Amino acid sequence: MISPLVVASLVALAVLGGGLAGTFLRDRLPGRHLDEDTKWMVRIGIGFLSTLAALLMSLIISAKMQSFDAVSRSVATTAAQIVGIDASLRELGPAGDAARAQLRALVSAEVDRLWQHAPSPASDARGYHPLERTLRAIAPAGAAEQAARARALQLTSELAHAGGLASSESGSTTTVPLLIVLLLWLVIISFGINLFAPASVTIVVVNLLVSLSIAAAIFLILELDQPYHGLIGVSDAPLRAALQQLAS
Fold first, then answer.
1. How many CA atoms lie within 13 A of 106 on its CB side?
2. CA triplet 12, 15, 16: central angle to 5 degrees?
3. Cα gap 213→195, rounded to integer Å
4. The model scores a pTM over 0.70
5. CA–CA distance, 219 with 231 (Å, rounded to integer)
6. pLDDT above 80 (res 31)
7. How far apart are CA 55 and CA 40, in angstroms?
8. What phi and psi, each to the nearest 5 degrees, are found at residue 199?
9. Which of 86, 104, 105 is CA-nearest to residue 96?
C-alpha cells in the first residue's frame, strides 16, 4: 500500500499544478475569454465546486473518525473480555492454567499480527475454538468452579463470534474513486482561481499554503483509515496490559 505521506505529497503537487496551469493560460488566452461575464461564470462554478468539495471532505473525515473510534472501543472491549476470562480461569486453579497459557498465546499472536504485521495462524474466530474445547474439557470441582468455567466460556464465545480483534476493520476502507473525484474538484478549483489572479509572491504563498492544507486533510483521512499503524493509530496499551496480567 502506498504511504499516506506519498499520496498527500502527490495531492499537493496536483493542486499546485492546477494553479500553475491557470496562471499559464491567463497570459495566453484572448481578452474576450477573460472579460467580466466569464469571470462571473467561473466564480459561480468554482463556488459550487468548493461547496461540494468541502461537504464531501467533511463527510469523509467524519466517517473515518467514527470508524477509528469504533476500532478503539473494540480494542478496549476485547481487552476487558480477556481480563474477564483470565479472572474466571484463575478461579479454576491449576485446572485453568492450560487455558490461560492458550489464551495468552492467542492474544499475543493477534497483537503482533495487527500492530507488528507478523503472520499469525490465529487471525480469526477459528483461533478461539481450541480454547473453547479446552474450557469444556475442564471438570469443575464444585459450584463455584462450574460458574467460573461458564463465565469463561461465555466470554470466549463472544470473542469467537466477533472474530476477536479481526472484527475491527484492519484493512483500508477508503474508496479510491471518491478520493479521485475529490482531487479532480480541488484541481479544477485551483485552476479556476489562478486563472484570474495576478501573478505575485502573495498569490504563490497562498497557493502553497492551500495545497499543503489540502494535502494535510488527505493525509489525515488515509492515516485514520489505518487504525493499527501509522502516525495516528489505535493504542495497543489495553491489550498489552491484559497480556501482562495473563503472564502473572
1. 29
2. 85
3. 21
4. yes
5. 10
6. no
7. 23
8. -70, 125
9. 86
Provide the grid cell at 43. Answer: 466564480
Helix axes 129-137, 143-162, angle to 10 degrees: 170
pLDDT in tens, 185-210: 999 999 988 888 877 888 889 999 99
Eight-state DSSP code of residue 141: S
How far apart CA 216 and CA 224 sit, in angstroms, is 12
CA distances in angstroms from 197 to 35, 184, 188, listed in the order given = 13, 20, 14
Instruction: For 83-231, list the strands marked E by DSSP.
Output: none
Residues 6 or more apart in contact with residue 172 via CB below 8 angstroms: 1, 225, 226
DSSP string for 40-57? HHHHHHHHHHHHHHHHHH
Cα separations (Å) of 52 from 56, 163, 184, 225, 243?
6, 38, 12, 22, 47
Q: Which amino acid is at 144?
A: A
What CA–CA distance (Å, rounded) separates 181 from 17? 16
Residue 48: pLDDT band by 50, 70, 90 thresholds? very high
Whole-angstrom Cα distance, residue 244 to residue 248?
Answer: 6
d(C-alpha 248, C-alpha 246), whole Å: 6
Q: CB count, 10 Å around CB of 30?
A: 7
d(CA 156, CA 127): 11
Residue 168 has pLDDT above 50, yes or no: no
C-alpha cell at 171: 484493512
> What cell does 67 get?
470508524
- CA dist 88 and 91 (Å) reads 5
